[in-house]
Each structure stands twice: as C-alpha cells, then as structure tokens.
Structure to design on (493 residues):
C-alpha cells in the first residue's frame, strides 16, 4: 500500500495537471471565462504526426464561436486532429490577451505530451496570438500561426468608433474599450513596428486567409462592407489589405464574410499548413525582420456620416447629387427604432427597412438599413422617433463621383482628381482618445492638406466632412475618417 501511494504521488508530480482545462460542451464549460481553456474530443485514431490545433476567438466573442452554429471544430475532429480552445478577454488589447495565451499555450503543450501546436485564430485573435508568440515568448511551443481575417493593420471600423460622429453612440454601447482602441489603424501601425522588428517575429510562419463578401443586405456585416469599401475589398469587418503581412503567406482570398471565414468551409484551404514543422520551402533566415510596411493607397470617399443623441425625435437633412445609381442608408442606434422615415425631395416617404443587431465593433447596436435605387437629387430628410436614443447615420452613395475626391494616406491631402466636382469645403473635427480636441474648416479647389502636427501621445481621430458642388451646380456631401497615433517619443503613425 505504501508503495502504491508513493507511485501515485510521483505520478501527480510528474504528469502536468491544469486546473483551467475543461471539455467543450460539458458541465465544466461556463463559456467565455477569460483564462479558461477546453479540450475537444479525441479523434478515433491519434496520428502522432498531426499537431493539436489551438483555436483562438476574436473581439466580442468566446471559444464557443468555434462549435456553436459552426462546424469548424467538428471538421477538425473528422480530419483526425486533437483540439483545444482558449478564452481570452473579448474587450481587452493584445497585451492583456497575449499574456493569457502565452500561459495557456504552455499548459496545452504539456497536456498533449509536449507536441508542437498550431494556432488557428479568427479576427483580433490572430493579433493576440502573435503577441503571445513574439512578445511573451510562446514561440517554442508552436509551429505555425494561421489567421482568419485578422486585422493585422487594424480596422477602419475601430477608427469610426472614436470619430466625431460615432463617438457618442460607441460610448453608450461600450464600444470604446481597450480592444477597439488597440484596433485603430494608427495604433496598429505603431504596433506593427514593435512586432515586425522583434527577433521572435521570424520564429513562426504566419498564414493568412481573407474574405470579400459582406453577407446579406441589412446585416451588420453588410453595413460594415458599405463603410469599408472606401478603403478597399473587405469581408464586412476587415479589409483584405489589412489582413496581410509582408512576410506572411496568403493562403486564399475568397467570397467569405467575417463570420463564414471561421467556419469549417475554410479548413480544406489551411489544412496543408497544419504541420508540426515549418512548411517546406519556408526559410526563416531569408525573412528580414525590418520588412517595409504595405504601401498606403489613396482612399475614395463614398459615404456620409452624421450622429449624436436625441430626445423624442431626430431629424437629419443631407444632399444627394445627380446621377446616383443607388442610395443605401443605415441608421445605427442603441435602441430598436420602428418609426423611421426617409423622405425624398419631392416628398416620397420610404419606411421599409431591414433590422439587424451588430456583433462586431458596435456590438449591441441596432441597424436599420434602407436601399433606394436611382434616388432623385436634392435635399433628403431622415426622421426617427423614440423616447431618447443615440445614433450614427451612414449614407452610402453608388456613383462615379466617388472616384473624384481621394485622400492621400501618406500626406493627408484631399484631392479633386476629376472634372465632375467644381470645388468643395472641408469641415474637420479632431478627437484625441475619443474626446473632442479641435474643429476647423477649409476651402479646397483642387487639393488641400489637413494638418496633423500633434505632439502629445495618443490616438487622434480625424473626421473630415466634405461639402461641395458638382459641375452642374448640385450639392454633394461625403465624410472620411482616419486615425493617427503619436507615441511617447512624438513619432507619428
């Protein structure tokens, strides 16, 4: 008996035990507890050559995203892979979540008998995971990192949350948190420098996938796609350009949206990169730790924004120029508002809209989306009735005029490139970390430069409202939002 007790004691000391591990779907799974991790069912045959897959979720989500209304977990199991799932904070930055992932990766590595792991991450989970590998030293326990629509260069939707028009609503919805703050494009450009020049960055190959679909009309991703199209092809939450890294391998870009990109349908494409060693042909020594960032492209201005708070009734009036093929209007509010009207210049009333609840940056917000083909030019009116609410109105214009005015990313110059626009004025609002800092206006004939001479550390969000006249003398309006990050040394990103 003494010998048996001694043997059991030795086993307890030798065999790794994790108090944070649970099994998915079981009674031990409370769901969404940061720092908890779960083990999937074991496949019928465990191939020693296949690495366990560790799944990491994104912003405003939890580990359940991989198996609730999603066949990704089942697909991995059917393909013979052992699996684990980590819960991180849905509203914290990459530094907080990277620390959690670092600790859990080591536990999971030991749990599976010290087999190297592959991380498959969705959205911001890819940033959190790379942070654990690079900045916290988890790289020895992982072979490859696979990111599914990860905003490696941030998301312009995060910029919007801190803008002059959306700041009130995002504050009420709780969208202004550490996670959203860290996803602003200015901040992420600074983060990329810190990460991409770190020697640990080249320890693990990175493989990326991205989507180009927005989902169905009226959905929150459809609205996100409308907004992001000014910045390029996107999946309703992240642009394809921002999902790439200069030193990563792009596995595939396809017609997934930000939700379907994490479903089992993408497994077949990243399956070849689920290996315990570096993929053949990838030489880490050939990868420079000082890669140049992706070059910025001029940004077309395709939409108009207005927002704020109202009691009893809100009223917005905006201009539509001639030759607009389609108007898509989204009224995003903290409350579901059934009484909304869009009124044309001749008095035609539109009140049929699609309703959806946001699940991404503006989680919990209510989208009310209208689609109006061939709208007449002139002044349009939107009326919304509710006891009190906060809102963000987005009007997306489908027209050739969108190609006329562009913003040069590097110089912050607004340029009139074509012959459809006579001239325009620009009203500029600047917020610092979500709080108003300055407002000013400027008149532009062919081009004008917005001053960004900031000195204090923080993220500055620049909201530019463009108002002008077409060559035919009709009014038009547009809005563009950009962020700039100033670090503690005064360097601008």
């Amino acid at each position: 008996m003494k010998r048996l007790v001694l043997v059991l004691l030795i086993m307890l000391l030798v065999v790794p035990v994790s108090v944070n591990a649970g099994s998915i779907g079981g009674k031990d799974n409370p769901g969404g507890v940061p720092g908890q991790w779960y083990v999937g069912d074991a496949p019928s045959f465990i191939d020693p050559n296949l690495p366990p897959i560790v799944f990491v979720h994104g912003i405003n989500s939890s580990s359940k995203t991989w198996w609730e209304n999603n066949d990704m977990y089942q697909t991995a199991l059917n393909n013979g892979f052992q699996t684990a799932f980590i819960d991180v904070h849905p509203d914290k930055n990459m530094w907080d979540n990277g620390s959690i992932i670092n600790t859990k990766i080591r536990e999971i590595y030991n749990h599976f008998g010290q087999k190297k792991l592959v991380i498959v991450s969705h959205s911001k989970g890819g940033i959190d995971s790379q942070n654990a590998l690079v900045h916290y030293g988890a790289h020895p326990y992982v072979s490859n990192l696979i990111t599914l629509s990860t905003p490696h260069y941030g998301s312009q939707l995060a910029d919007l949350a801190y803008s002059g028009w959306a700041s009130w609503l995002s504050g009420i919805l709780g969208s202004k948190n550490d996670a959203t703050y860290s996803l602003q494009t200015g901040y992420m450009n600074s983060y990329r420098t810190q990460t991409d020049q770190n020697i640990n960055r080249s320890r693990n190959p990175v493989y990326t996938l991205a989507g180009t679909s927005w989902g169905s009309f009226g959905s929150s991703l459809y609205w996100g796609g409308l907004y992001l199209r000014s910045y390029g092809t996107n999946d309703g939450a992240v642009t394809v350009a921002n999902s790439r890294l200069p030193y990563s391998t792009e596995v595939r870009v396809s017609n997934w949206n930000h939700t379907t990109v994490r479903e089992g349908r993408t497994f077949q494409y990243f399956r070849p990169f689920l290996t315990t060693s570096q993929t053949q042909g990838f030489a880490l020594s050939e990868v420079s730790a000082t890669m140049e960032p992706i070059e910025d492209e001029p940004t077309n201005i395709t939409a108009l924004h207005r927002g704020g708070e109202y009691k009893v009734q809100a009223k917005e009036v905006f201009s539509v120029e001639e030759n607009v093929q389609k108007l898509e209007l989204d009224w995003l509010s903290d409350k579901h508002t059934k009484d909304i009207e869009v009124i044309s210049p001749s008095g035609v009333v539109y009140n049929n809209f699609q309703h959806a609840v946001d699940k991404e940056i503006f989680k919990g917000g209510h989208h009310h989306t209208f689609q109006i083909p061939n709208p007449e030019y002139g002044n349009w009116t939107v009326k919304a009735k509710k006891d009190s609410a906060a809102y963000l109105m987005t009007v997306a214009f489908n027209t050739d005029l969108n190609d006329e005015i562009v913003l040069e990313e590097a110089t912050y110059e607004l340029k009139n490139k074509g012959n459809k626009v006579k001239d325009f004025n620009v009203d500029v609002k600047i917020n610092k970390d979500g709080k108003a800092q300055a407002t000013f206006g400027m008149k532009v004939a062919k081009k004008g430069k917005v001053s960004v001479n900031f000195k204090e550390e923080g993220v500055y969000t620049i909201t530019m409202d463009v108002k002008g006249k077409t060559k035919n003398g009709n009014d038009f309006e547009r809005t563009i939002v950009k962020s700039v990050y100033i670090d503690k040394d005064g360097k601008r990103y």
Remarks:
- DSSP finds ten helices and 23 strands in the chain.
- The domain at 16-156+176-279 is CATH 3.40.50.1820 (Rossmann fold).
- Residues 94-111 form the longest helix (18 residues).
- Residues 464 and 475 are 17 Å apart (CA to CA).
